Amino acid sequence: MRITENLKFQMLMSTLSLxxxxxxxxxxxxxxxxxxxxxxxxxxxxxxxxxxxxxRESIDQYxxxxxxxxxxxxxxxxxxxxxLELIAEAKEAGLNDQSSDxxxxxxxxxxxxxxxxxxxxxxxxxxRYLFSGTATDTEPFSRTILPVSASAxxxxxxxxxxxxxxxxxxxxxxxxxxxxxxxxxxxYQVSEDGGATWLPDPxxxxxxxxxxxxxxxxxxxxxxxxxxxxxxxxxxxxNAYESGTATASRVDDPQATAGNTFAGTVALDASSGTYxxxxxxxxxxxxVNGGGAVGDADYQISADGGKTWSATYDAAWGTTITVDSTPxxxxxxxxxxxxxxxxxxxxxxxxxxxxxxWNYNGNGENLSVRIGKGNTATYNVSGEEAFTGRGKGExxxxxxxxxxxxxxxxxxxxxxxxxxxRLTAAQDHIREKIASVGARMSGLNISKENYQVLDEKMSGLxxxxxxxxxxSLIVEFQMKETALQASYAMAVEIGKKSILDFLT
Amino acid sequence: MAGINSIFNIAKEAxxxxxxxxxxxGSNVANVNTPGYSRQRAVIAxxxxxxxxxxxxxxxxxxxxxxxxxxxxxxxxxxxxSDQLGYANERKDALDRIEAIFNESNGGGLNELLxxxxxxxxxxxxxxxxxxxxxxxxxxxxxxxxxxxxxxxELYSLQQELNTGISQTVTQLNGYLADIADLxxxxxxxxxxxxxxxxxxxxxxxxxxxxxxxxxxxYVETSEGAxxxxxxxxxxxxxxxxxxxxxxxxxxxxxxxxxxxxxPTKNVTSAITGGRLGGMLEMRDTTITGxxxxxxxxxxxxITEVNAQHARGYDGYxxxxxNFFEPFNALMGARDMxxxxxxxxxxxxxxxxxxxxxxxENALAIGSLKDALIMGGTATFGDYYAALLGNVGQxxxxxxRSLSHETSVMTQLQAxxxxxxxVSIDEEMMNLIKFQLGYSAAAKMxxxxxxxxxxxxxxxxx
Lengths: 504, 462
Known about the structure:
The complex is a heterodimer of chains A (504) and B (462). Chain A is of the alpha+beta class and 504 residues long. Chain A has helices at residues 5-32, 43-95, 100-121, 383-387, 397-410, 413-466, 470-494, and strands spanning 124-125, 128-129, 144-149, 158-162, 171-179, 187-191, 199-205, 211-215, 218-223, 235-240, 245-246, 255-256, 265-268, 281-288, 298-302, 320-324, 331-336, 349-354, 368-372, 375-378.
């Protein structure tokens, strides 16, 4: 084999560059402490590391979600515990020896308990109401102007108040039946001072529709749906609160969405009834198929806030749309365009809040959060469930307390006892809720601990895959360093030996 | 009988031959580091002196030719290997740059931004009316869209760069082809004129290797000494003393096709599968187009799925959700992904809720797209991207292996070439001593013949 000068240098160059490349890549690994510095270093490993990192991000999010939900439930737990104490106090008031002197004091105690319950039920977590269901921006409980029927009354129909109270301080209206009889025949009188003076004099007749005027903008409506009509001596009490809501306004005014094209007005039609459903609902009307003029545009209706929609209504509809067609309790929206050419556009949205509970403004829906792949956890207790007798709720706690207060004021012993029984049921119900919150929290804590373990495993996997084993890397590094030094030494020596050294 | 003159003649020939030997050695030593230089050797033979009777032993010497030590088959292999090496080099260069675009080793890449995007949705689900959460989601989405734009944009500009490179390479190739045709001319007329054409042959071999580095070719040597060069599909590039230029022509995709310059209907793009040009074409038309296609696919699905779910919800005002991202069919591809202007200008337009009551359920539904098997029904967005990254890594690793293989084959061939054609200083020094001795001996003969003449003349004087 002929070894030429070029060959010698070529061989030298290739060994030198190989040694330097090895040395360089090891130096990079030493500096970054990583085995994978670019995808081609280990394509499969690099792909795995990406997946591991995504899993860790998910775990991080799940943990954050769990912490959030836990904090929420922690506060829910505390608030419900306070409600439990409050109910116990109210029961104590109801069970107390009730001389005429103490009764008024006890009634005041119950009154302040009602206010305390109000503030507990309207508690917030950050900016969100704890007990509003999913409508966390809406204050769930408002003061309610509530009619109470005395226990000795023969009348067993239902009653509700209407109108907006215009008085400047809290007031109690008392209604007594002067001459019994059916609606349209019976006569009544109203007292605004606890029974000292009665008006009108002579007694007025209850109209056939059952609605009498109390004063200060309030009305009281009798609905004769029981077995016994109004009987002489029946007593009814209405506690009116400043800024309170009358129980009859069960359907709010329709709301138009800010982005709507339609500039006209939408109102409840005069022939709308009251809402007859069991839980609070949001009815939504959405225009589809490009919209059109009032009476002509195609629309859909949703009874669950817009999650699911009815089939498209494409027949002419005049000026009104019925969103709830329960006979006798229809909810009807009246559309009035602002002028000719004021059309409804596609995706114009109008919604109406219909409230089943007198004083509850939230809904019965659940708030949930993701705690794993395809796994969600519910973390709220809705106000409906905890404090009303509607939907998943069992006892109308506010109603019980209001009635207790009125009964104490009027000395209606039977009514007081009845409320104590209701409060006992409420205690059991709240305890049950507290227990379920506790159980959910401990479940979430177990998940959280699992995630901590999983997270450690993942970070272990990541470091196994992409991080260097420093000890073996250093040994390898020293080997390559030696090889590089040898190559350099050879490079210096190789030019030295030649026949020329021996020619003189 | 041969006279003293004959001695002079022989000595003269010996002087001449040895001097030529030293000259050739000198050329070899001078070109020890010249690329493409083939070692030369004076071919020395005896020369009979016809003017003397056959009985007399009187044999002269002469240099028949200056031989170029060369292995034609080795040259053929080396030219062949040049196109493999050029192809491997080009792929490695381009893939290295692609890998740099996709490098996620230190985080901060697409994968992380995708994760942050989904997390922002979940945070919004936990507090649907929170302005902080809405704004954070807007930023996370813009970052994500920006990163997709960056990745796809860089791939796209690399593709454009390769396209420009193809045009430049074709120009370079045309220059080499013209040079080969020119050298063919010199070879033919040089050989006819018996001039020493070794250096021309060396230059032509070098050019053949350079051409082959650019594009895969076949070549044949004609009986008159010219080389004819053909593309792999048989289209001639050099025929004896005439070269045929290639040219570029923009195709329907806006890229250059390679055509024959004097007949642009002859599209030779598909015939070029080797050399740097072949590498560039493959990178431009297959590899990068493929990666861009994957990114487009991913972006299209993200946009479509997120927009579809977004439209099922209601924004902070109770409106039906509009587009979250600009719809894919309005875009040029992943390189223009944008968050819809309505969302960026007003984060309350994010449809976080499934009802008009701000419940956050829709944000949860969009957040859960992270784990949905959407890509081909078998992979999540994250999986799909990880697989794409894995593909890039595999391609780079493969290109690196192939480059190091082709390089080592080339090194072997070069070593063999060196063994045949390379200059060894040791050998040349030995030759130098040999010819120097021969020259001295011939000179001694001249001085001896001169002495003989003097002796002879002295005899006449007496």
